[in-house]
Amino acid sequence: MVKIAFNAALAQKGLKEAPSAVKDPELAGPPAHSDGSTGRCLLTLLGIAFILSGLIVGGACLYRYFTPKRLYHGSMQFHDGSNGAEAQPYYLPQVEEKMEISDNIAVISVPPPRFRPGDPAYILHDFNRKLTAYLDLTLRTCFVIPLNTSVVLPPQDLMDLFSQLMSGSYRSYLVQEDLVVTERIEDIKPLGFYIRRLCDGKETYRMQRRDTVQGGGIVKRSAEDCFTISHFENKFVTETRICKA
Ligand SMILES: *[C@@H]1O[C@H](CO)[C@@H](O)[C@H](O)[C@H]1NC(C)=O
Questions:
Q1: Which chain regions cross the lipid bilayer (predicted)?
Q2: Ligand 1: which atom is nearest the Cα of residue 150?
Q3: pTM score of the predicted model
């Protein structure tokens, strides 16, 4: 294709410059004086190809990063075993979420809970890198932990769950998980584009499940600085308790 365009361009040029010399563009060999213009023509074509490929790649990137593929909204009511006795008989606590899912990334927005302690947060599940990041909006701090695939449904199932939630009220139960901050992450680049974008400019820490921390079972819990984020990415609500040891 490039060759055809090149020949046509050359032929036109030849026709303009010396109409008598070139009768049939297909038969005419390249004129001896056109070595310089051939080079320039090739360069121009290369330049155009370069610009076009830039536009295509750029467009694809813009499309990928700036168009949310799907946006969902859902809420779950749940039985809270821990203080069921105190709760009003007909009142069930509720967790609301908005979820944006695209490209194997789920970003969940959790508003501040009503009538319950808990922090508003963004939760990002990167299914490619198998990482989860919590951005606590009260503390403006990021917490990163390996993605727990037995809690977080895969993208297609997550979408199905939200579709189900949109068609009526959903009653569920509460699961608590206990996470402990282990170290500060100075360089967030290795965490990938999406977590980097979420956690850019915030203090970022690595976490671990409390039951996997060596001898971490009952260490001075009262002295710790803890907060909770209630959310769901499965058919139950998870109350994530994060403690800065
Ligand atoms: C995932 O979460 C479940 C329930 O909280 C827990 O039992 C399990 O140990 C976790 N798995 C990993 C790999 O952390």
A1: 42-66
A2: 1
A3: 0.70
